[in-house]
Amino acid sequence: MDRKIGIVLFLSLIARLIEFFYTHELWWDAAVYLSMGKYIATFGQLGLWEPIRPLLWPIVLGYGYFIGINPVIWGHIWSTFFSLGIIYLTYEIAKKLFNDRTALLAAVLISFTWIVFSFNVRLYTEIPAVFFALAAYYCFLKDKPFQTGLFIGLSFLTKFPEGLLLVIFGIFYLKSVKKLFSLGIGFALITLPYFIFNYLAYGSPIHILIFAQEFLKYAGIWIFQQPWWFYPVELVKQNLLYFFAIPGIIFALKKRRYALLLLAIISLLYFSQMAHKELRFAILFLPYLAILAAYGYQKIFKETHSFIIITLLLFVIHAQIEPTNSNDFFTFFDDKEVDGEILVTHPLTAYSTEKAVTMMYYPWFNASQADYWFRYIEKNSPEYVSVDTCEGGFLCPPEDTRCEPKKQELQAYLNETYTVEYYQQLGNCEYIIYHSTHPVAME
Questions:
Q1: pTM (2 d.p.)
Q2: Are strands 384-388 and 342-344 parallel, antiparallel or unpaired?
Q3: For the stretch 213-241, what's the b/e string if a residue is b when 16 or more beta carbons lie within 10 angstroms of its beta carbon?
Q4: Pairing with 277, which of 166, 217, 265, 335 sits 20 to 30 Å away (CA)?
């Protein structure tokens, strides 16, 4: 291994280890993947199940639970491995496409872009998905279509939009039926069990994928809706050096690096046309933009030191220490003997509970869901109802004028018929756990 990339990897590891040892709150999606992992490891006895989620990352996290390792620590180990792998593969790909200096700049830029760095500890799917995507690209550059298909399959089963890679790389194999077939076989070998599982479980191999797309249109869309130019603007805010991806595109076009250009541009356009936008989605195409930005900068200025200094300086400016969350609402059931059903509006409760739970928030909360759960609770009398009024599991869409009255009706019923066993207010957020005095025991 080249000494310079070795130094970058070492510094990247040290920075990630320091970040790891701060206390981090588990965010929504991480709680879902951890709870799904627990569900898989215990064959449905604990945790929860969200059908629309890709299965590879929950399986990885669940294996930690299965072998007796803390799934959060287990996940951080894998996430750090994937993160360092992204840096190294970005370097190797840029080196193969352009030169050593571009490769070094791209590796530094992707390592110390704050959104990439900070999500190393989040246990979301972007980091592992990008690792597999870059592995696929590296195999493509080595002209290994079967291995390319394998890694695309792994990336797809980690984050569904990475299926775009199959189309992009397939375009370049159109002239060779043998290579195109090898690409497809590699992809199918990895993904076929998933599609078979979908067919057996839900009656269709692709219905869940279609529903997952619908989910992004409605779930919390009023929170995540952004204009089409969101990603370019936000990425330049992350590091102004991403601006050099524009001349980088021009220079790469002259070098006929068409696959790189398609990976960057098609991915950017795909996520930009979606109403639901989050900066973390940009992680999926940031390595390609980092390579283009590094190449554009290097072609214009012919040097590297200022690029590295600016990157590290902007990284330090973005750095922030996350406050410790002392809310014990989510760990309320840790030492509770529960015989009946638990309804939850937040997946973190499911991860912290040694019992399978029922999701009130899935697939999204609205007037119909509020009405459904009112009738469900009235009929089934679950033992506990865990309500968080601030997250998406109990928030009404602004355009749904019937939702708020229905939600208030539901909460009024809970206040009248249940005992409030836990209550905490933090700012405008209420955390309430209702306990039934006459629960129906679960079989």
A1: 0.94
A2: parallel
A3: eebbeebbbeebebeeebbbebbeebbeb
A4: 166
Residue that the structure tokens 């330049």 belong to: 236
What does the alpha-carbon distance between residue 84 and residue 239 come to, in Å, rounded to a whole number?
A: 20
What span, in angstroms and rounded, lies between the C-alpha atoms of 203 and 215?
A: 19
Characterise 203 by phi-psi region: left (phi > 0), alpha (psi -120 to 50), beta (else): left
Is the CB of residue 96 less than 8 Å from the CB of residue 291?
Answer: no
Can you name the residues that pair with 434 across neighbouring β-strands? 385, 420
Adjacent-strand bridge partners of 22: none
210 sits in which H/E element = helix 207-218
- The CA–CA distances, whole Å, from 210 to 29, 115, 156, 191 equal 19, 28, 14, 16
- The answer to whether the beta carbons of residues 225 and 275 sit under 8 Å apart is yes
Residue 425 bridge partners (DSSP) = 430
Which residues, 6+ apart, have CB-to-CB distance to 383 below 8 Å? Answer: 338, 339, 340, 341, 342, 435, 436, 439, 440
As a whole number of angstroms, the distance between CA 208 and CA 70 comes to 30
Structure confidence by residue, pLDDT tens digits, 22-79: 767 889 999 999 999 999 999 999 999 999 999 999 999 999 999 999 999 999 999 9
Q: Strand 419-426 relative to strand 358-359: parallel, antiparallel, unpaired?
A: unpaired
In this structure, are strands 358-359 and 342-344 parallel, antiparallel, or unpaired?
Answer: parallel
Kindly give the parts of the chain with pLDDT less than 50.
Answer: none
- Among 425, 426, 394, CA closest to 411: 394
Give the residue carrying structure tokens 């249940």: 418
Q: What would you report as the CA-atom Rg of the chain, rounded to the nearest whole angstrom?
A: 23
pLDDT for 117-159, tens place per residue? Answer: 999 999 999 999 999 999 999 999 999 999 999 999 999 999 9
What single-letter DSSP state applies at residue 112?
Answer: T
CA distance 299 to 185: 39
Q: Where do the structural domains in the chain lie, given as residue ranges?
A: 3-318, 328-435
For 362-387, write each residue's pLDDT tens digit: 888 999 999 999 999 999 999 999 99
Which tokens in the block code for residue 381? 């009398």
pLDDT score recorded for residue 303: 86
Q: How far is CA 111 from CA 10, 77, 166, in A?
A: 11, 17, 26
In sequence order, what are the beta bridge partners of 424? 431
One-letter amino acid identity for 178? Answer: K
What the block records as the tokens of 333 is 């059931």
Q: 126 near 119, Cβ under 8 Å?
A: yes
Element containing residue 115 per DSSP (H, E): helix 114-118
